[in-house]
Amino acid sequence: MQSRRLNLALAVACAFSLNAFAGEVEVLHWWTSGGEAKSVAELKTMMSAKGHTWKDFAVAGGAGDNAMTVLKTRVVSGNPPTAAQVKGPSIQEWASEGVLANLDAVSSAEKWDSLLPPVVANGMKYKGHYVAVPVNVHRVNWMWVNPEVFKKAGAKVPTTWAEFDEAAKKIEKAGLIAVAHGGQPWQDATVFESVALGVGGADYYKKAFIQLDPKAIDSLTTLKAFDTLRMVRSHIDKNAAGRDWNLATAMVIKGEAGMQFMGDWAKGEFTAAGKKPGTDYLCVAAPGTEKAYTFNIDSFIVFAQKNKDQKATNDFASTVLSPAFQEVFNLNKGSIPVRLGADMSKFDDCAKKSTADFVATNKAGSLVPSFAHQMAMPSAVQGATQDVISSFMNSNMTSKEAVAKLLAASKKK
Ligand code: BGC
Prior knowledge:
Number of strands: 15
CATH superfamily of the largest domain: Periplasmic binding protein-like II
Number of helices: 19
Bound molecules: beta-D-glucopyranose
Helix content: 40-55%
Largest sheet: 5 strands, mixed
Shape: globular
Structural class: alpha/beta
Strand content: 5-15%
Number of domains: 2
CATH topology of the largest domain: D-Maltodextrin-Binding Protein, domain 2
CATH architecture of the largest domain: 3-Layer(aba) Sandwich
Strand order of the largest sheet: 2-1-3-13-6
Radius of gyration: 22 Å
């Protein structure tokens, strides 16, 4: 009897202590592919372990275009989620609307300024206050290769766009698809971004796509980038229209296609399929981009909430940057930890290469933000730029016309 009463008292005490700190976090994200879902599941588990309820607000659609539309509707109706996957200059755009909460308490208690590279930390702050927490660093300028396909075709893994054209022709001759691609505007922009970087180099990329310098945009280099994109397009299969990016990755995994141009969230799909880098697949820089790095940092903004205590939100932000989460999430996601000094011993060679290249390109000045993944341009310019690239991919538009349209897009307010 005595012990039963004690058990009951303990149970009540436990329930009380959990409830006293429990909260709900509703988190908007677009991580719905196999590898992505596994990654975000780790966050749900860690939040439940802290006694919080996770309300999933997943909006399918690569690169988050759909998610952003849904987010706007929710915020306009006065009912924002706790946090939302938003990145790059959009963080500042949302903060200037006055709808975000700040993370001062947790960021100063945990000394975020010393945990993050300054360039990353600055992007998470609005007027000196953290309004977002970063999750990872993705590299975008990768080419994913199935070595078996190359072997069958007698082709060599290309390091220039001319070699790429040769290899692609050989793969097609062997009856296979050269490039797995999904014809969606953001995927078109992802390919163009790597092509432009490969054709023009990092200095050109910075001028044309970050500084939006009219002379750099309206140039022979941009013309050549579109010519090269047309060549790449000729090696994409005819069923690409509308295909999701992870289905394109699956074509490389299964050996139906030789290559895919995609950020390293694609590695999350290879990992989820039990494939090993170096043997089952190769991660190589897109032709001509070996010495540069297009980065894409996922992050969550947190919204100011009426009648909700900040505890669950702070716990969420703290969990995201914790060493344990940084490791397990990024192992599944294909990215690398954003937290400085992370233990990389469990990571594969692609992640190690990404880390080494991040450091080297940062030193060399060729570490550049990915515009296709909302890291570089104001959102209106990004949308208009993406539309031009996508119309080019789906029409007979000449490279000259595309350059003129790109210039107009860069002036979009
Ligand atoms: C995000 C990744 C995501 C990918 C595909 C990118 O913009 O940064 O986290 O996996 O889109 O949806």
